[in-house]
Design brief:
Chain lengths: 343, 343, 343, 343
Amino acid sequence: MLYFMNDYSEGAHEKVLNALIKTNMEQHVGYGVDDITNEAIALLKKRINKPDADVHFLITGTQTNTIAIAHFLRPYEAVIATDHGHISVHETGAIEATGHKIIEMESKDGVLTTEMIDAAILKHADEHWVLPKMVYISNATETGTIYTKSMLEDIRKACDKYGLYLYLDGARLANALTCADNDMTIEDVASLTDAFTIGGTKNGILFGEALVITNNRLKEHMRFSIKQRGALLAKGRLLGVQFRALFEEDLYFEIAKHTNEMATILKNGILDLGYELVTNPSTNLIFTILPNGVHDRLSKHCYYEAEHPYDENNMEARFVTSWATPKEDVLELLRLLKEFKAN
Amino acid sequence: MLYFMNDYSEGAHEKVLNALIKTNMEQHVGYGVDDITNEAIALLKKRINKPDADVHFLITGTQTNTIAIAHFLRPYEAVIATDHGHISVHETGAIEATGHKIIEMESKDGVLTTEMIDAAILKHADEHWVLPKMVYISNATETGTIYTKSMLEDIRKACDKYGLYLYLDGARLANALTCADNDMTIEDVASLTDAFTIGGTKNGILFGEALVITNNRLKEHMRFSIKQRGALLAKGRLLGVQFRALFEEDLYFEIAKHTNEMATILKNGILDLGYELVTNPSTNLIFTILPNGVHDRLSKHCYYEAEHPYDENNMEARFVTSWATPKEDVLELLRLLKEFKAN
Amino acid sequence: MLYFMNDYSEGAHEKVLNALIKTNMEQHVGYGVDDITNEAIALLKKRINKPDADVHFLITGTQTNTIAIAHFLRPYEAVIATDHGHISVHETGAIEATGHKIIEMESKDGVLTTEMIDAAILKHADEHWVLPKMVYISNATETGTIYTKSMLEDIRKACDKYGLYLYLDGARLANALTCADNDMTIEDVASLTDAFTIGGTKNGILFGEALVITNNRLKEHMRFSIKQRGALLAKGRLLGVQFRALFEEDLYFEIAKHTNEMATILKNGILDLGYELVTNPSTNLIFTILPNGVHDRLSKHCYYEAEHPYDENNMEARFVTSWATPKEDVLELLRLLKEFKAN
Amino acid sequence: MLYFMNDYSEGAHEKVLNALIKTNMEQHVGYGVDDITNEAIALLKKRINKPDADVHFLITGTQTNTIAIAHFLRPYEAVIATDHGHISVHETGAIEATGHKIIEMESKDGVLTTEMIDAAILKHADEHWVLPKMVYISNATETGTIYTKSMLEDIRKACDKYGLYLYLDGARLANALTCADNDMTIEDVASLTDAFTIGGTKNGILFGEALVITNNRLKEHMRFSIKQRGALLAKGRLLGVQFRALFEEDLYFEIAKHTNEMATILKNGILDLGYELVTNPSTNLIFTILPNGVHDRLSKHCYYEAEHPYDENNMEARFVTSWATPKEDVLELLRLLKEFKAN
């Protein structure tokens, strides 16, 4: 079976795994205050050019978003996000479970615009409404699209105008920053946001998200929130080891480049074969319209997500490439798509 | 100045006030387990024809919604409501503050349809999403419209199909059930919902909402939730006295009839004068499009809400009648609307 | 039957009731931004000599404590209180329900000492513990004892030393400040705390607690929290009317003086009769050890709390005087206590 | 440097690490519904002899306790625990952060007795108090002591009497069940509790706690809670791989036996040298009273926790053995303790 299900189907990239093996019997203090973690933090701060940032390594994406938002906001403050936002739909109400409303703005392609921010602010007049205080965006978005630098700058301006924090969910940040349509650096991201995350789980490590906080007002006592929400890993050095491996030689971006290359071959191949895409992704999520007959046959040879019918005659299929996707698998998938389309 | 600001601008209806005065020096046990409260509960249960219902008297509407919903739901369960729902927009995120997401469905006139319920259910596939478990509707709605009996029956069926509780916010229930377009009784409401509220604050008493629970699964330990959320009034008999006054001679519905009559005169008068309405209300909230020139002059003679511009040339004004609105005030308002329109 | 059950058995003091009657048909804007409420706030700020304080009128004591504490603290911050504290035991976990731990320190008489604060701080070493950030005390305490000015000054110093907010629950503040053992003024209380409450419910009004915030850091956006927690009364002027009545001629303190006088007569009489007290109260809560035989007979003539056996042969009875307690009732109670003791 | 700091200083036991390496490039579905996880669950259910139990693999101990307790309880329900309980003191108020009060009962050695349960129940009279609904115990306890079978049976009876759930935190369950003083099996634990955890992090794996639920009433929709609290690991198979390794050949108990053997040698050696212990542990936490002079010298050769002074002249030191502790390190530590004591 081919496997285009997601970008977290395998374990860790070889270099990351080797780093874990190599350090396995070292003795370190617990809870992420060990030397390796400190090294990883230093590497990361250097790479984003923010020597004063606070960096915390957390375990899962939902956990990271939850802890950050719950830590940053007062009880009556709310987050503006799109209705595709991971926090809006795919985290089982984790943000609301900490007491905060998400103001969900309708978006076709998962991108948040400044018009949406304006509209959300306008509507929330007084103390009978929640107080909008944060903008949440994902880059890459949940539909595979990305923000350009000017888009991010505009959002930053809107946030400054209204006194909002800007938080960027970077679960697939590496993919965004290494794709062909991108014009931003990770330093730009660090400069334009108040806090952002650097996703590891979907980019070649066993697990791990780095939470980077650049706004001084948001930093204090974060470790209390991390512990309280169950995210302080006893063997915290596991996160340090993995992020050190990602950032000591820019492996973080190399991995994503491969992922994107595989996605580009796949996307172009799919379009060449005459299939339609649901969105026009820049990164590694290819939402494709598959005739039911093709889906019936393909699903016997390949794993991929196809939860929702697109219409009566078609399925919406999601193909995802990853750091572990071999080129031959992409080509074989295209071959199958060609074969099944012809019949 | 005329006063069409809202239906809670004055204190209490004369009969309610007199009941408070008369019982003032009586000595009663605290926290709502006194004899008067018990009498009021008995009257109310008889009136709704639900001898086995649990009835609790609470203080404010937001408090009542919050306590009920937080008591009924498990942490990962969510409420389906319209984007006009009082809990969606006008309670400062009170529901989310207890940990529950509101799934907001777009609605033009504040009415929730079974199609919206279907759509919400379809979307929430698995444990990565919140679990829809309750439908919240308001009758009358926040725009002054109402549910007919068949509409409520359909929603009940949809709830049964999907295993959802049906909760009806009756902050203005009296208005809904006494208006010309209504075909339901309060017994119908009690039979078709799992829990509902009978609003007092907007219908002639100082403060108070009755929470009625007919579904046995939702009843247990409610007084713990009431106390925990700060809603157990020490002098609980104040609520008993007021609701006894409302229900010992059907004053509850008489009051609303007057309110609706005043609203009907006003609405018809406004339409006769050639003004347009934003919605077509059945009850006492008349959202009217006022040319800016009219608004400028009228607002010097009358209090009413006019927060949002309707467009460049018009304001959206909300006129509300109440138990305390004299007919002459309605006529005077119409006279002013006529005069200012002519110029 | 005599009635020494509590200090909230009747409605409102005559002057308060008359104020409500007099203003009943006035039209005011809702939610506590009306002129009467503003007058009441001005009177109160003048009386406590804190022109810059923020004052909010809330409805119940549990509600007030919950809203204040949830508004003041960050998610990982905790409150230090005695194990008698109203928030510790008698609010159904309301504070924990907002996410905050109460660090309960054992206290014989309900009074918190600086040694307890020291001990609590010492124990909470790092981010594996909650962060103590507030001290909660009640004056009068839940056992009827009070704080002297030097005790409060010492607690203030301890709070300053450790960076803690000092919050004083004044549900029975009037009783504390008018009793024979008191040496503080309400201005002292306002100067030595960061926030405190002025209880009305137990001192002659229908309902109402004033929350006074003097620390600027704690003020912002409080109305959002009040609304979110369901405490923004539509007819907010009801609170304004009552507090204006309490503070326009110092009725607040006059009422409490009477309560305390009745308590003093009762306490001295009880001691003269040879009964023992459980604590040595300064105010209106008289915890008395009643032989079972006396309790059996007395409870047929008088209502009072007697929930817990003191030992095999005795009950712990709580007699409470109030603004509405006539002297003849106190004397009659003493007569019965004498009569039943003799037999 | 010697290392007796804790039992999570190294990575994973060789067999566990090898299992991770071997499965690294396998492709599996995410979020813990993969085949390996299912195998691990089957092995575990067989080992505890509970074919109908629900088993979930979670990441950290605080996370597991939080999710379980928040899932099991209604908002007003509380947990009874000792004042040494991990949830009481060492989880930054995580339980309170989900809204639930912990009723902390004073305990000398971390063991909860039925008398404490009786006392807690007696005190919580009505809806003004939280409702006790769960008993939380740890085995081994936080001081290294354990429960015998008859102690656990008595607690079970008390729980049945009062309608309480019994939850056992097994962060160090392996140590408890393999120590010399133990007379219980893991089947006993599964039969006598409603839910319990099987700790992996402190017993040789990288991370992971198994939550076992045997009470049917507590099972429903647990995966929603797990996802909502950020604990659903994308590469969930990592937990499956590790727990499969622990339970396919009883490695889980072999590891703990070694840990306990090392602890026994250390404990006996310490006592032989004439040092005093703070408690009398059965497992691998040896709280020892070290004269300040000894501590000053020893801490240059060995890592161990010594946060609190025992008295003016002594430190309280905690020595912890683990699966990775070589016997020679224990002997060297004893040699140093002997040498420094002599001088």
